[in-house]
Amino acid sequence: MRTLVVVRHSKAEQSGTPDFERHLAERGHGDAADAGRWLATQGIGPDAALVSSSVRTVETWTDIAEAAGWDLEADFDRGLYSAGPETALDLVRLTPPETTTLVVVGHNPTMASLAQMLDDGEGDPEVAGRMNEDGFPTSAVAVFAFDGEWADLDMGTATLVAFHVGRG
């Protein structure tokens, strides 16, 4: 069984810097840390992380990993910054077969669409209801179980097992 964690970056500053270079707002750092603590309580310990190389996603990853107690070097991918859900899924499919738990940190609407399209509807209806009702706001975390090879991950092939929105 494999675990895929889909994360939307935390709240970013709304300043005049180019979008790719926006930093997390103070609230965003706290929310990312809250998400990391929650992931640790869920027993999530990733083997790999795929993170958009924008400033706010790198900072989100750093805060999550620190709060969760993970010592893992992420793969920072510029392509994930502008990827649509199909391209993001293609990047996930490239995950080495020995990886059992992968964290992906990216942007909306891609992360929300990816989470929706992966869900096979077999998970806890309450968890799915929360994800659908809450949407996929900043610091949203969806945890999926998948029984298969990463290369075979496709629409409707993963079970949503947990959902959380970090608010620190």
From TrEMBL:
Coiled coil: none annotated. This is Phosphoglycerate mutase. It comes from Nocardioides gansuensis. One of its GO terms (molecular function) is hydrolase activity. SUPFAM superfamilies: Phosphoglycerate mutase-like (SSF53254). It comes from the Bacteria. Gene3D superfamilies: Phosphoglycerate mutase-like. Pfam families: His_Phos_1 (PF00300). Keywords: Hydrolase. InterPro entries: His_Pase_superF_clade-1, His_PPase_superfam, Mito_Ser/Thr_phosphatase.
